[in-house]
Each structure stands twice: as C-alpha cells, then as structure tokens.
Amino acid sequence: MRLVVADMEKCIGCQSCMSACARRQGEAGLANTCIGVKSVGGMARGFIAVVCIACDAPSCAKVCLTNALSPREKGGECVSVLLTVSGVVTVAMPVL
Amino acid sequence: MLKHDPLANVLYLDLSKKSFRIEQRHDLFERHMGGAGAAIQLLHEECPEGCDALSPENPIVFAVGPLTGLFPLASKTVAMFKSPHTGNLGESHCDGRSAIAIRMAGYGAIVIKGASDIPLYIAIHGNQIYFRDASSLWKMKSGFTAGRIIRENEPGAGLRTIMRIGRAGEELVSYACVTTETYRHFGRLGLGAVFGSKRLKAVVVSGKRSLPINDKRLYRKVYDEIYHAAVNSPAMKKYHNLGTAGNVLSLNEFGGLPTRNLKQAKFEKALEISGEAFAKQYLGRRLSCSHCPVGCIHIAALRESYEDESYFYKTSMISYDYELIYALGSMLGVSDIEGLLKLMDRIEVLGLDAISTGVILAWATEAQERGIISKKETIEIEFSWGNYTAYMNAVQLIIEQPNEFYKRLAKGVVHAACVYGGEDYALAFGGNEMPGYHTGPGAHIGALIDARHSHLDNAGYSIDQTASAERHFTPEGVAEALLAEERWRQVLSSLVVCFFARGVYRPDIVLRTLQVSDFNFSIDDIHRIGDEIHREKYRFKIREGFSLDNLRVPKRIFETPLPVGKLDEEFIHKAALYVKAEVLKHPLRPKVSN
Ligand code: SF4
Ligand code: SF4
Ligand code: SF4
Predict the structure, then answer these.
(1) In this structure, are B476 and B531 located in the same domain?
(2) Is A37 in Cβ contact with B291 (below 8 Å)?
C-alpha cells in the first residue's frame, strides 16, 4: 500500500506526517523528511502537502488521524531514495 | 544531554546595536532542562533588578525544551520578561509552529535585549540572522496584513513561525499580546507591549535539521507509546471535538461561569454561546500545533455582507475557545454569537489579550451602571451588558487613548479602579485580570498565589471540581494541592509539554523520553527540579516586590456564591501563610552570576 493524498480539506496542519517520515528513516527532526505540509497562504485557508511518490507502507499516512493522507494500492518508487539521490519532488494531487 | 544537541545554543540579540552572538549553555539545559526552567535563569541573568519593563534593559527570553521536535505535544515556547502589566514576573506560553521552528533553527533559547531606533523585525533562518526594516508595517491597521506581508517576504513556508504584534503592542497597551501563526498567542501579561517598546514588530524563525538521539529503538518505542496514549485518551478527543469551548455548559451548570462582571456565576444564555452552538453554526476548520495530532484549535467561519453593496460578502476565519467565550461573552453579557465573533475578531486584529480586555470592559460597564464614570469619560459610549458594538468601539479607543480614562483602561483594571473607584469589583489577582473560573477556593487562591496569577499554573478550578470536601477545603489543604500541581507543571513547562497532555506525560514516561536525549534523571531528580524552578520564580517575584502578606482581593469574589467550599479573607490569609512558609522553607538561592 502506498500513499494517497485523499482530502487536504481535512488536514489540520499538525505535521505529524513530516516527523513520521523522518522516523521511518531512523532519524529525528525534519532534515530528510519527504513530505512537507504548509498553509495555502496563512492558516485560515488550509493546507497543501508536497510529497514524494510514496514508499511502501507509508508511515506518514499511518499517523495522519484525519485521513487527509491514506495508503493506496499502487504507487511509484520508494521516494526517500528519489529524494535523497536526485531531489525529485512531486506535488501530490488527489488520486482518483 | 547529548554533546551535539543544538538545544544548548542560546542566541543573544541586541536590538540597539543590531548585533548577535551565540553561546553554548550546556550548564543551563543540563540543570534546568529547558523551557520555563532555562528561561527563569536567563531572566535572572539578564533582567536588572527594578528595571522599567518598557525600557531597553528588559530582556525577552524565549525557550524550548529537549523533547521539542522529538516527541508529540512538546510544542510550546515559553516567553519570560518583566511584565509591564503587573511590574513583576512576566511569563507566557505559546505554540503554533514557534517551538518546532526555534528548535529546527538550532536553538534552545533566544534572548532579545536593547531597543531599535526604527521599527524592525528579526528574521532568524538557521544561523542566518537579519534585522529588517519594518517601518512600512508599523501602525498598520490590521495585524493580519502585517503578517501576510512578512509571509510573502520571508522564506521557510511550512517550517517557520511568525511572531508579531498588532496596534496594541505598538501603543504599549500593557496587556498587548504577541500573535503567532495568525491564531495563537503569548497572551497574558503584556509581551506585546515589551515588543512595542523595543520597536520590534515581529520575529520570524525557520529551520530544518536532524536532532541527535542516542537510541533509535528506544526512541521509536517511546514515541509510539506517547502517540497512541495521546490520540486514544478521552481528554484529547474532547479537545479535538469541541475544544475548550466544550467547557462553557459544564462550568455554567456547575455555577462557576463568571457572568456580568461576576455579579452572577451562571449565564442564563450560556446555551447560545456554548461550544456546541459554535461548532454547529460556525465551525469552519480545526488546526493543530506543529507535531501534535490533537488539533484542538477551533476556527469559526463568519460570513458577513457589506453594508453598502448587495450580494457582496466576506468570510472571516476567527479562532474561539473557552477563555474568549467567558471574557467577551458571559462576562460582558454578550449572547449574540455573531456579535461575539465580531468582538473576538476585533481584539485579534488589534493584538490585545482577550481575557484582560473582557474583564476591563466588564468593570467599566458596572462602573458606568453605578455612575462612577459617565459618558464624559467614555466619550459618549454607553456600556451596557450585551452591547457588543459599544465594546468594539471601546477597544478601538483603548488603542487610540484619546483621554485619561482610556489611558487608564490601557493599563489594566487595577489602574483604572485606583483612579475612579470600584475596586471591590475590579477583578484582578496580582494585577492580572481574572480567568474564567468562579468554581471555589482553589480557583481564586490559585490565581492569587501562582507565578502568573492565571489559571494556567495550578488549575485551581480542577481542584474545586474534583476535591473531596473533607480533605481539600481547608486553607492548608487547598494551598498544598495548588503547590503540588504548580511544582509538577514546572517540569512540564520546562519540557514545554502542552498541559492538555499532562495525563499522558506522567513522571515515568517523562524519564524515558529524556533518556533518548541522554538526560539521565531519576523521578526524585525531576521533582526536585520542578520545586527549584518554582522557587526561582518566587525569588524573582519577591525581588521585584511581590508579597504574600498583602494580597489584593476584590470583594466581589466573596459576594457571589461559590458552587463549592466557602471563602473569606481569613481563609485566604491562612492559605497565603501556608504558601509563604513552604516557599521560604529553604532559603531562596542567591543570584546566579554569569
Ligand atoms: S510515502 Fe513518502 S513521505 Fe510518506 S513515509 Fe514514505 S517516503 Fe515518507
Ligand atoms: S496530512 Fe495528516 S498528518 Fe500531515 S499535517 Fe495534515 S493532518 Fe497532519
Ligand atoms: S493539544 Fe491543542 S494546544 Fe496542545 S499542542 Fe495540541 S493543538 Fe496545540
């Protein structure tokens, strides 16, 4: 199961996903997280997530209580590799 | 602590010279952990005895803790300063993205001294520090707009905090707040005015880094335990669903919701401004602090039409919680929920502490009712319970301060009552306007003796609500329970753990979280540290003139019946004696030299 950005309207901006991705890599802090959640021009207007193409069993989705993120069936390659090797980031769109 | 933990870095900024330096202070964090513990030491070091709170000498200290960025709900920043509102210890906590941003930028604490000649803001991006001209942001009508411009100007979106003041801070209103992330506040005791006195419009902090840990497996294990305990606890669910606003109805039923300047402790229209009513009619979004899954911050969406144009609307997103509903709702007799939201919004835009503002306006309403002030003082405003338009106009005048009356209101309810009278119903403890609890002896004595004179340090209301009558409702029983809670909260606020998670961060869990960063304490150690921090705060308070011998108690709290327990001067006197003996049991430590 890989990652789906399901409904960012549900996102509360808690950034738990960001630190979960770092922990998955055996790290603490945010230096190498593969997901970034930021506001759409101020907290009042909600959030967007800038994510990788998704690893297997995404930790970020596991901690997302609001189901703004959820695991999906198919996905690309393990993104932490993509990110650290070539720095590729994609802006995730809801997957239909 | 781990040798390379960036927590040890203290960033010292001088606004007069526009210079900075970074010092490694392992001593500070190893001994006092961080947060409140580190901040009170820095305050002792940096704040000259008896200094004017609005002078360049008064330092602003921000501190975070060892768990910040590592564990959930350790996301508070503690600010310490000398308060321009009370002339004594100023301490205020705020969350949003502030604590994580400071930690990710590579600091455990930031100390700001001096004053700038021109308005400026400070941008701290990791080890890059900039002093930026803020002349064009100064005197801007809305704090929101200033925030928006800084947001556009600075990098670090998603990883930064923007702490800023509004008009209230610029005009040195002694209870002006500092706002972060649009909706969160260093609310109480006037940090905003200290910013204003330094011509400091804002502080932006951002960063991204890894944090050292000594045992990956232990880290993940303890993390998972805390995370699951937090998200499964009923308390957290309550905070997520209705937020603290959920307490309006229960406190009202209990008979502890201060209403119309505490002439009553039940509001007959509480249902109309309850957390349930807000959620059903207006809840538009929930937000969370960084690295906290709870999401207790509730934002209302208020759609308003433009008066002069048909079919034109704007939607304002307004944060609400229990304290605002109390101070601007029941305390002022406001039951019109839309009016209440507008009043909350106005106060947010100007950057005032909502609790102090509400209590001051409540005093003004009663004072006008009793004829000790007239329309001459108020400049034609007629305060009356529930009239939110009058209150909105009045807060604007508190900023503009066109006459002596509004100048006094801008200094707090005690200052106003000293001049105009009505001291018996000027509801402040230690110079700080009362929080929203008339629940019993615990709440009031708690506010009288705690370091911040608020409900935050010892939760007296909860002692009232849960106490078994025979044990607690003696002066000594109440005092002892309050002291025990306040000492333990020093530990939590040194780890900068959100008090809502106090049920999760029990002493044994705290020890294990600390082990991950190589702080090897025993349970006795952390209790001792909590006690020490409490004493250090008292040492500062006594140094600056606070005394438990002459507490100012507004008579109103004796007149309006309490739901539990009995309270009179004698009871308070005995409780204060007990606290004094406890605090002075060991001699207070002499000043720590640099
Ligand atoms: S899906 Fe991407 S962001 Fe989520 S845990 Fe995996 S690598 Fe990290
Ligand atoms: S996507 Fe989920 S975990 Fe990430 S910030 Fe939003 S609510 Fe939190
Ligand atoms: S419980 Fe609420 S106040 Fe506390 S850290 Fe979480 S979102 Fe912030």
Answers:
(1) yes
(2) no
Chain B residue with the nearest C-alpha to that of A38: B158
List beta partners, residue B299: B285, B319
Do B66 and B12 belong to one domain? yes
B446 lies in the same domain as B409: no
The continuous run of DSSP H or E covering B126 comes out as none
Residue ranges making up the domain that contains B540? 439-502+521-583
Q: Say yes or no: B169 and B79 in one domain.
A: yes
Distance CA B267, CA B334 (A): 10
Q: Is residue B511 part of a domain?
A: no
Same domain, B326 and B201: no
Kindly report the CATH number assigned to the domain that includes residue B267: 1.10.569.10
pLDDT band at A85; cut points 50, 70, 90: very low
- Count other C-beta atoms under 10 Å from residue B403's C-beta: 13
Ligand 2 centroid, distance to B353 Cα (angstroms): 30
Q: How many helices (H) and strands (E) would you count in chain B?
A: 25, 18
Domain spans, chain A = 1-51, 54-96
Please choose, from the candidates B187, B203, B287, B205, the residue with its C-alpha nearest in 3D space to the C-alpha of residue B243. B287
* Residue B509 belongs to some domain of the structure: no
Q: How far is the CA of B500 from the centre of ligand 3 (A)?
A: 7
Pairwise CA distance, residues B535 & B550, whole Å: 19
User: Which chain A residue has its CA at the smallest distance from B228's CA?
Assistant: A63
Confidence of residue A55 (pLDDT cuts 50, 70, 90): confident
Cβ contacts of A22 on chain B, cutoff 8 Å: 210
| B266 vs A: CB within 8 A | no
Given A41, A43, A65, which is nearest B287 (Cβ)?
Answer: A43
Q: Whose CA is nearest to atom 1 of ligand 1?
A: A54
pLDDT along chain B (594 residues), means of 10: 96 98 97 97 98 98 98 98 98 98 98 98 97 96 90 94 98 98 97 98 97 95 95 91 96 97 98 98 96 96 88 93 98 98 97 98 98 97 98 98 98 98 98 97 96 92 76 85 96 97 95 95 96 96 95 97 91 96 76 44
Structure confidence at residue A78 (pLDDT)? 32
Phi, psi dihedrals of residue B261, rounded to the nearest 5°: 55, 35
Within this chain, do residues B105 and B164 fall inside the same structural domain, yes or no? yes
What's the pLDDT score for residue A94?
31
- B393 in the same domain as B314: yes
Q: Which of B147, B223, B293 is the closest to A65 by Cβ?
A: B293
Please report residues of B whose CB lies closer than 8 A to that of A36: 158-159
Looking from the CA of A94 toward its CB, the CA atoms found within 13 Å total 8
ipTM of the complex, rounded to two decimals: 0.91
If asked whether residues B46 and B193 sit together in one domain, one would say yes
